[in-house]
Specification:
Layout: H1 2-24, H2 41-64, H3 71-89, H4 91-94, H5 105-119, H6 128-141, H7 145-171, H8 175-183, H9 199-204, H10 207-215, H11 221-232, H12 236-252, H13 256-276, H14 278-292, H15 299-310, H16 312-342, H17 344-349, H18 354-374, H19 381-384, H20 394-404, H21 408-427, H22 444-456, E1 463-465, H23 470-478, E2 517-523, H24 524-533, H25 542-550, E3 554-560, E4 563-569
Parallel strand pairs: 1-2
Antiparallel strand pairs: 2-4, 3-4
Helix pairs in contact: 1-2, 2-3, 2-8, 2-21, 3-7, 5-6, 5-23, 7-8, 7-10, 7-20, 8-20, 10-11, 11-13, 12-13, 12-18, 15-16, 16-20, 16-21, 22-23
Protein name: Glycosyltransferase RgtA/B/C/D-like domain-containing protein
Keywords: Membrane, Transmembrane, Transmembrane helix
Organism: Methanosuratincola subterraneus
Amino acid sequence: MKKNFKKLIHINTIIFIGSIISLLFSKSDLFDCNNIYDINKIFWILSIICLILNIIILFDFIEKKYLNKNYYTLIFIICQIIILKTIMVSFWGLAGYYAFFMRGDQSTYIGLTKDVLFTGHFENNFYPFTSLLISIISLITYTPPETISIVLPGLFQVLLVLGTVLLIGIFKNDIKILVAGLLFSVPFISNWFPVTIYPQFTSVFTFPLILYTFVKLLKFKIVFILFSFSIVIWHPISSLSLLFFIFSSIFLSYKKIDIIKIFFIYNIIFISWTFSFYSLTDTLANFWRSIMSESRITTYDIALLYVQKLGLLESLRAFFYMMIDDLFMYSLIFISFIFSLKNKNYIKFVSNMTIKISYIWFTLNSFIIAFLFFAIRGHVPDRLINLNWSLILVPCVAGVFYTQIKNRIGKFVVVILLLIAVTASVFTLYPSPLIDRPNEASTEGEINSIKWIIDNRKEDIAFSYILTPLFRYSDLIYGTNYPGRASLHIGYAPSGDSYFIPNHFNLSIYDKNYLGERYFILTQYEINAYTKIWDSVDRFNQKDFNGIKINTASEVLYQSGNIMLFLINFKNI
């Protein structure tokens, strides 16, 4: 087996190098790419093979007891995994995209960073720590925030692995458990969050480090307080989750006095920060009113609307693809919990309270997410179902669990499940038709086109659009304090009118209500979305998009790449 083992390592190294080279030579028409995985199919195939080979090699390390003799080889393979994961989450930038999730919060976070750089203060910044971090890096390195947003997700992957290694070491100082835990950290959890600078998940990726300093409280008390302070101004929900962890520790720990001191210190920081940001207190008030209201709309209600539009089978398929890696993690921690109840030696083997805390913390977080989903409007459904930050502890629990399985069939099943989770998580890492979402990345050319449109528009004419909110682009370009930001929102009009694009561009139904002019933005993104991916929704079809270009009520003012600007004149309808 040793000769085959060495051959496997050599093959793995060749594939690893090949996947990197294939990325460097990737070429694609980014203006008409509705699937980011089409940019370089060879890279994705080679990367999957490389990750699977790495996993097989590391499992072989554990089972054949090579660990004590091959530390350099082990470190080399772990470095391969870290580098490959880092490149995967930065793929959109390396492939030539300038900004990602332009139709969502990502660009606004970059804009909030520019506010700090332009004005020197946060104003109403909801998540100041992310903006502060990017601003400092930008000032020190003379690097634009847009570029940092490409690099940062990869750096947080490294931070996640480092924290996981330290935290697993607390569970049990055993090299086999360490390697097993790292194996279960290979899947990209939480769908598309790892490729973004969303404060929710950049903060979550630091959890292992924070929890390590917490468990090592007596040695790193000051460090833990600093970490606690930083995560409070990073994201309030993350800080709330950390409070759950502290609560679980108080409940189980014998060192109650030390932990209670930190608990009060942490609460003082959390409460003082909460009241210093009135926007957050307004949100908490709305949150409370939502709970008390009898006619409240919940996230579950919104999810039902998606089901009605897409159909039950299509919705279930999308849900399965989004959750397949998370479902694996859920099942793994559930199986390990059942195993711990039946196997007394398992609990004795773990000689500290951390694994018990993990189970309690996981349960508390799961209940909170279920409450947000069924009781109130906590978030849009596709985000909320991927918000279980307690999954970050699964590698630690799974590492201990796997090394205690004595049955070969049981180990084989766990390995197969892990390989499926890794493969699935790679192909749900970016929006694609696989999960019913087209590629939402933007090129530098697209952003320059939008900038020209914003700079050259007539301010007395309002905008309408389908899926390309101009205020997101203005956030990225000018910051969120751009004076004309409100006029870029859909429905805005100086006269108080609001105009939303009707299905199939049925402009004639508005001829009695509108006598003025209105800008309309159309991009290749909308065309791809409604003709190739969401065609079952029957909102637009190719005939509609062709017809709007020759409609007597519409005039093409600008066309560049995949962006068109129309002027709709209702007088001509």
